Amino acid sequence: MFVIIGLFAFLFIIGIIIYNSLIGKRNQVTNAFSAIDVMLKKRFDLIPNLVEVVKQYTNYEQSTLTKIVELRAKATSGNLTDEEKASLDTQLSSAVKGLMVTVENYPDLKANTNFLNLQTTWTESEEQIAAARRTYNSAVTDYNNAIMMFPGNIFAGMLGYTKIEVLATPEEERKNISAKELFNN
After folding, report:
1. Are the CB atoms for 86 and 136 separated by under 8 Å?
2. pLDDT tens digits, residue range 21-80?
3. Contacts of 34 (CB under 8 A, 6+ apart)
4. Are 88 and 75 in contact (CB under 8 A)?
5. Rounded Cα gap, residues 50 and 98, in angstroms
6. Model's pTM, two decimal places?
7. Does residue 132 contact residue 36 with C-beta atoms inside 8 Å?
8. Distance between CA atoms of 60 and 73, rounded to whole angstroms?
9. Cβ distance 53 to 109 under 8 Å?
10. Which of 57, 84, 168, 179 has the highest count of CB atoms within 10 angstroms of its CB?
């Protein structure tokens, strides 16, 4: 009789440990995505300043600036899913990279102290976003492992936990950059 009670108590304790572990891993994923949101907010706050400084020096880059402003407005509007946020982030990164390449055509802008400070801050922000993405992907991998491996998969199935996709680099950003093409523009 004591053996059966002891066995049930042991299984109950193991169940509590697994349950708490799954909750902790799910919360780590949520926290890691929140860190990405914080970094994206910082980036979004930089965009108006960057656009204003560039506007002072450029005349015919209006379509690029307009696209960046529109993407920022969408991104800060709220009520976006995680997938929509990731998609807007990719589009915005691409647009700003294009703008930074365009800056090469404006020597006065490249020498402007405000622009150089904004460019440095932008670079730091991009590095922080990349670090936050790595942290998120690590948390997602830990979470996915926990819900897919035995015995966690039993509890995860009962609790309705499902696999979360890691953030991946879009195909167009994986392509090799040709230095020859960059310098021939």
Report:
1. no
2. 999 999 999 999 999 988 988 888 888 888 887 777 666 567 777 888 888 888 888 788
3. none
4. yes
5. 13
6. 0.74
7. yes
8. 22
9. yes
10. 57
